[in-house]
Amino acid sequence: MDIKLARTEIEGKPTKISVEKLEERLEAKGQKIFYFDKDNSHKDMMNLIDYFESKGRSVYFREIRYGLDESDYMYEVHII
User: Fold this and answer.
1) Which of 8, 28, 52, 75 is deepest in the core (most CB within 10 A)?
2) pTM
């Protein structure tokens, strides 16, 4: 499964990353906070959470609003 990381620029395009790459980053640090783009569907985010919880990890998920517009948000996922 591929998921889109948060944009680094407002007009930029989000970059895709595989769940396996996320898992590799976690192995190096043990825990990590990831920011994902609003273009990801809520269902994909729930699948990501289920995947890591099935691996025995704790996952904290929330939406972060960074502007006044309804479309100004990103997803924050903290995996321990």
Assistant:
1) 75
2) 0.89
pLDDT digits (tens, 9 = 90+) for 36-51: 999 999 999 999 999 9
Token pair for residue 22? Answer: 């996320």
How far apart are the C-alpha atoms of 43 and 49, rounded to whole Å?
10
Say if CB 34 and CB 24 are below 8 A apart.
no
Neighbours of 22 (CB within 10 A): 21
Q: Would residue 5 be called left, alpha or beta, if left means φ above 0 and alpha means ψ between -120 and 50 degrees? A: beta
Among 68, 54, 67, 69, CA closest to 79: 54
Q: Is there a contact between 53 and 21 (Cβ–Cβ < 8 Å)?
A: no
Residue segments in the chain with a per-residue pLDDT below the cut of 70: none
Q: Where are the alpha helices (DSSP H) in the chain?
A: 19-29, 42-54
Output the pLDDT for position 12: 87
